[in-house]
Write a structure and sequence with these properties.
Layout lengths: L3 E6 L7 H14 L4 E6 L5 H9 L8 H8 L1 H16 L29 E6 L20 E3 H9 L7 H9 L4 E5 L7 E4 L33 H11 L7
Parallel strand pairs: 1-2, 1-3, 3-5, 4-6
Antiparallel strand pairs: 5-6
Helix pairs in contact: 1-4, 5-6
Length: 241
């Protein structure tokens, strides 16, 4: 019982009280082998409802209050999960980030914050060679390196956020992506993979929500790029050149 494992459950995994009860059973079984810290998303669809409520007062609500509003979804699911665990004889307490004194930067909606492993439970069986919802014969990967996953996430793979992989890489924490709907070992994301020397292509990612701008007549003068890209960065808009 020396290892601490972080388990993260996405919105579809806690989308109903029935799903939360199944998640509680997964946690109960895992707690027999390791100490656990569990992180849950809001119940599926709840965050979208909260976002729609915020737009009643304008399309660009205050970012601090927006974050305060949408975070209530996670408060609900974490409290319900704690209740489910209690019903199974498992000691558990729900905490918000503030209650455990977690501090972030004041870059609202994009704020930044070690364990033996982080298990991320979602509605897919792991990391695939491409989106299985688009390509029916996509193959599940048993393992992938942090570097490869960073590249896939940065190019549009939605199964895990780029920042999650960045932090795991920085603190050398292996990440396992697996399904809360089906049994399986999922995909392990680690620093090294013995097969990486032989791999030519690990996966294919794509993005549907990008905008491309082409600027003509930009002079090759020192400082020009900064004048263009600086304001974009100041506005906290992600860009790639």
């Amino acid at each position: 019982m020396s290892d601490i494992i972080i388990q993260k459950f996405g919105g579809t995994s806690v989308g109903s009280v029935e799903r939360i009860d199944i998640v509680a059973e997964i946690i109960k079984n895992a707690s027999k082998l390791n100490k656990l810290i569990v992180v849950v998303s809001a119940m599926g669809g709840e965050t979208n409802k909260l976002i729609e409520l915020s737009k009643y007062f304008g399309e660009n609500p205050d970012k601090r209050e927006f974050d305060a509003l949408v975070s209530t979804g996670e408060t609900v699911s974490s409290a319900l999960l704690s209740m489910a665990l209690h019903s199974k004889g498992i000691k558990a307490k729900s905490y918000s980030a503030a209650q455990i004194s977690m501090k972030t930067t004041d870059s609202y909606s994009k704020a930044k914050v070690g364990a033996s492993r982080c298990d991320i439970y979602t509605d897919v069986d792991g990391i695939f060679t491409t989106d299985p919802k688009v390509v029916s014969n996509a193959k599940k990967l048993d393992s992938i390196t942090m570097e490869e996953m960073l590249e896939l996430a940065g190019q549009g793979a939605k199964v895990i956020q780029t920042r999650a992989v960045e932090f795991a890489n920085k603190y050398n924490v292996p990440v396992r992506v697996l399904s809360s709907f089906n049994d399986g070992k999922g995909t392990l994301i680690s620093l090294e993979d013995e097969s990486m020397e032989n791999a030519l292509v690990s996966g294919i990612a794509f993005q549907k929500d990008q905008v491309k701008f082409t600027l003509h007549g930009v002079g090759d003068i020192p400082g020009t790029a900064f004048k263009i890209l600086g304001p974009i960065s100041d506005a906290e808009i992600e860009f790639d050149v």
